[in-house]
Amino acid sequence: MKKKSYAKINLTLDVIEKRKDGYHNIDGIMQIVDLYDEVTVEIADEFKITSNSKNIPLDEKNLVYKVYNVIREKYKFDEKFSIHIEKNIPVSAGIAGGSTNAAVVIEMIDELLNLNMTLEDRKKIGRSVGADIPYLLVGKTARTRGIGDELEILDSLPTTNVLIVNNEVEISTPYVYSNIVPTGNSKNVDKLIEIYKMKDYDKFFESLYNTMEEVSISYCPEIQTIKDKMYEFGCVKSLMSGSGPTVFGIFKNDKDIEFAYNYFKKIYKNTFKVKAMER
Q: pTM, whole model, 2 decimals?
């Protein structure tokens, strides 16, 4: 069985407060884009993860391995699986490459073994392994709160051209969280949701933000350089996704995104021209 596992971008990300358990409550809006890996799951004599990428762990550090262990513990089955991950999504990039692989593996193990999980069952398994996995199981435009696992599904974002540029610098998410000053409230996201629900997309795009940018840009100033260059090519908004370093630009004009793509692709191999979508 084979499935596409799609990347996400954070259209907006606000860090609200640090929780007693050490995590942070966030608020924001997530969006699926049509950049994807392909994951194949087959019943086998031994559990094994393989990949075309040398940049991902193939042992218990991989989120796929972790969700397999959680599902096996819960449903008490003996089957083992051969799982191949054909990577296209950059690794450690702030666009959920590992989490999206884990999300489709939950779905495929459920389907292969007829475990009859509900969506809530799948989300609960995902939540125990990674905060983004519940969102990726839903795969629609959504407001995300809590640690990213509390979802409010929104109307679909109209077809939107997005340019993704990843410079392959690894930025530790715990480092970013440990250096960020939480905003303390969700007022800005509340206003943004109001604008979105009024379908004023021009104002919506202009108002997008990511409070993690300051910390990540101080660590990797190249993020700002990429953002600035995207504006030179005529994007309506450029932002870092997640804790970085990936930068995305929203473009209205097909020629503008084509010129930008051709420029960035010569510098960064992880440059992708994609569209917003839903699973």
A: 0.95
